[in-house]
Every structure is written in structure tokens, then in C-alpha cells.
Amino acid sequence: MAAFHVQDLQAQMKLFYPPEHSEVHDVISTPIFTDHVGKYLEQHASKKKAPQYGLLACDISNDSTLNESSRLFYNVAAPSSIFICGSQGSGKSHTLATLLENCLVRSVANALARPLTGLVFHYDSFVSDSGGIPCEAACLSSNKQVSVRVLCAPTNTATIKVASASVVQRKTLTLPKKIYACLPNVTVQELRFSQDDLNTKRMLNLMVASPGQGDKMPLYLHTVMRILRELRINQQQRGGGFNYQEFKDAMKAANLTKEQSTPLHQRLETLESFMAKQDAPPEGPKGKKGKGNVAPKNGGKIDWTPASGQLTIVDLSCPCVTAEQACSLFDICLSLFLEQRTELGRVVALDESHKYMNNTNESNVFTESLLSAIRLQRHNGTRIIISTQEPTVSPDLLDLCSITIVHRFTSPVWLQVLRRHLAGASDNGESDINGLETPNESEEGSKQYWTIPKSEIFSNIVQLRTGEAFVFAPSAIVDAIPKSHAVASVAHKGGDWRPVFLGDGIIKAIIRNRITEDGGKSIIAS
């Protein structure tokens, strides 16, 4: 049989060899690497594609002494997903802002040939006509390289918008009536959607046509899905986009009962209050004249075209916007941001996500969109960063994230969640020996990393100081060792060294200081 002919053996065995310079590719695609690995990367990487990375932290697993070799770098060039959790005041928002700095601001802390474009979601129930607290990520505006724009709810424009230059210079940081008045270089726009921004998928998500497990789909949603199906068929035949007025007319002709139409009208009213003036229907969802046409003169559609160094913050903090409505609107914004064709790298961040991601259908739909974005991050060039107090907000996100950064917390329940979803914190393969271990301690120069026994991991987390964290990143490369010291490989091509992955190890790290202004400092009574 020809398949077993000895003549083909050598050619067939070559099919198992890794590509040339596969070690360099491993480093290029790793989310985190050490100083030692970075030096290898500079020597071997292609000059056509310069590495882009930023200083994130210092490794203090072995020693609290900070030095050159203890530096940890975040790989800006490679798509990745990061989950940050910890109690209030432990440093998670600081870590989020530090990662955004590495992606958007050229500084002494990074090597950034082309800044990325960013999108941050923010929602806070602590807001009123008297003022509120700005999104901490907006403090990146203190560096003129970053263009920060805030998209707000139309019902909160007067409270959230920036003030005059003279007010900005005074920097009154104590809950100004104009929430972003204390920050320079920030523009505020109303969040407005045009008819072109709507499509079948977004309408289905807005209607929460995929209820949670155990929930039965309401009867009116079957009608909504049928109408959207028919409209999509017509749209495919004649060309063109989604027509919101046609959808409204078809729903009106469906003659739903009052009980069926009430939840539908509520969702459509939310959408129409965020529609651009020229696209808001002349009739509201209930057929009342002028109900839907609520946009002011400056309520034009938003330009979602990506721009290098631009940070867009969708801040839906408003007494008139619920957490459930915020999730539905965030979902539309995420879709619009990711669908733009661009060669720019993208970063999406969720700030204080525990404030709006809870056990509701709207939150579940938004979570599914995030999970989909993470699964496709390599294909759409996206980095996802989720910051939350509680790791319980979505364990599914923990499963998919390539990096988990755990700051101080004191809840045993949170620890149980981490145990079920993180290799370095799981009960499997527990070691009775505390301290430092390596994959092979006999390998000369091999990087050592922490493994913490089950009985001691909680006490170690509780004792973390502000700004310190445990980093779980199985695909992080912590060292590069000569192949002469490594286990024999089937490959005879490639470099003369091989990467050492963190695997189920843990790095204890201290996050670096901010380059831009720190907006998360505690206000201490004087």
C-alpha cells in the first residue's frame, strides 16, 4: 500500500514539524511575558512588525525587591481577554486604567508604534441632578495624545457634560454638577442611534428573544420573530437595510393584546428615546403623536469610525436608565464598534461591571455578545477587559479569559468561584508543599513561579496590599531557555531556545503607577 511506503516516511514526518521560528510566534501571541522573554523577542522578531507592549507590573513572587528582571509586560499587539476582580479599593480600576494606557498612550512605559482605539462601558446608579462620579478611564484625557469622548443618555446631558475651560482649570473634583467638568480634553455627545445602526440581530437582542435557561419565551416574542423574519426576507430580495418604521407598522397590524404589547412598547420606547431625530418615528410605540420624536436639535447619529488614540466612553449613568436598559444599549454599541472595518487594534473595557451585569435576561444577552467577541478576538483584533468586584457576575467569562488578575478580597464565596474556573486556583493536583516550584528545577536558568496549596490561597489573597495582585495566565511566557537544556523535541528547525509557560502557576505582582492622572484616589477627611 502506497501510504506505508518507506519512501514517503520522511515527507510524512515533516508534516509534524512546527513551522520555522515557532518559538517566536509563541512569544508574539502570548498575553504576558517577562523581561527575559522580551529580550529574546527583540532579537528574533521580524523588523517589519515591531513588538508592541507595555509595562504592567513587577513580579514579587520571590522577593519584594524591584529590579529589571522582575518586570512583567502586557502584549498589546496580540488579541487577549482579561478578567480583573477584587474588593473596593484594592486596585482593580487602577489596573484597568493601566492596561488602557498601554494600549492608547505612547510613554516611557510602553513600545507602541500605533495606538489602538478603545471603547469603555460605564454605568453607575450613584447619579442625580446634583452630580455624580465620572468614569475613571476618562482621566486618560490628562494626556493630550488621547482623544476622549463620552456618549451619554439624552436624559442626562445637562448633568454629565463638560463645563467651560475656566471650570476645568479649577479642577473641582468633589462631585461637580457637570460630572466631567474636572477633566480636560473631553467631549460629550448624546448617544443616538440611526436607522442604519439597526438590524435584525440587534432588534432580536433588544427584545431579549433569547431568554435565560428555564425561561419560556413570551408569546409576543414569537410574533416579533415572525415579523423580523418576513422583513429580513423582503430586505434580502430588494436590497437595502432594516426599516424601523416598517417593523413598527407590522407590529401594529399584529393586533397584540394589551398584556402582550406592554413589554414590547417599553423596549421600543427605550430604543426610540436614543434614536437620532431624523430617524425617530413621528408616532410613539403606542401610536401617540410626537411620542417617539423626542430627540433635541443636537441629537445626530454617532460616528463609530475607529480612530487611533481615541477612547469612547459610553456612560449611561442616569436616574432614567435602569441597569437592564444599560445592558441592552451597551450590546448595540459593542456590535457597532466591532463591525467597523479597520486595521487598527481594538480594546473594549467594562468598568465596574458588577453594577449592571446581574441575573437578568438583558445582562445574559450582553454576556453572550461578550463571549462571542472573546471567541472571535483573534479574528477581529480585539482585546476585552472586564473589571468587577465580584467574579460571580459571569463565571463563563472567567473560563474564556486568557488572563485573570485577582486583587484583594475577603469573600470565601468568590474564592469558590475562582477554584472552579482557574487552573492555578483549582483543587486538582494540589501540592502539600508551599512555596516556589518549577516545571523542571534541573533546567539551568528556568524561571520559578508560585504554586499555592488549597489551604493557603485564601489567606494569601486576603493579605494582598492595595495595588498587589495574583496573576493567572496559563499561556503567559515566563522564561526562554536554551533547547540544549530542554527535553528533546521532534522539531529540528526553529530557534535554539524554547519558551516556558506559566501553566497552572501563579505570579504575585505589583501593578505599576499611572502615567496619566489617577482619578480613583480615596477622598480622606481632613
Walkthrough of the structure:
There is one protein chain. The strands form four sheets. Strands 1, 2, 3, 4, 5, 6, 9, 10, 11, 12, 13, 14, 17 and 20 form a 14-stranded mixed sheet that branches. Strands 7-8 form a two-stranded antiparallel ribbon. It has helices spanning 9-13, 22-29, 35-44, 92-104, 157-160, 165-170, 200-206, 219-238, 244-253, 258-272, 323-339, 361-375, 377-380, 395-400, 412-421, 454-462, and strands at 32-34, 53-59, 71-75, 81-85, 110-111, 117-122, 127-128, 131-132, 147-152, 186-190, 310-315, 346-350, 382-388, 403-406, 435-437, 449-451, 468-472, 477-482, 497-501, 507-511. The chain has 526 residues and is an alpha/beta fold. It has two domains: 19-191 and 302-511, Rossmann fold (3-Layer(aba) Sandwich), CATH 3.40.50; 195-272. It is built from 16 helices and 20 strands. A hairpin with a 2-residue loop joins strand 7 and strand 8. The radius of gyration is 26 Å and the shape is globular. The N and C termini lie far apart (88 Å). Residues 292-301 have a biased composition (Low complexity).
Helix amount:
25-40%
- How much of the sequence lies in strands comes to 15-25%
Number of strands: 20
| Uncertain ranges | 163-177, 289-298, 430-443, 486-494
CATH topology of the largest domain: Rossmann fold
Task: Round the mean pLDDT to the nearest integer and report it.
Answer: 83
The dominant shape is globular
Work out the helix count. 16
Between the first and last Cα atoms, what is the distance in angstroms? 88 Å
C-alpha Rg (nearest Å):
26 Å
CATH class descriptor of the largest domain? Alpha Beta
Protein name: AAA+ ATPase domain-containing protein
Region (Disordered): 277-301
InterPro entries: P-loop_NTPase
Biased composition (Low complexity): 292-301
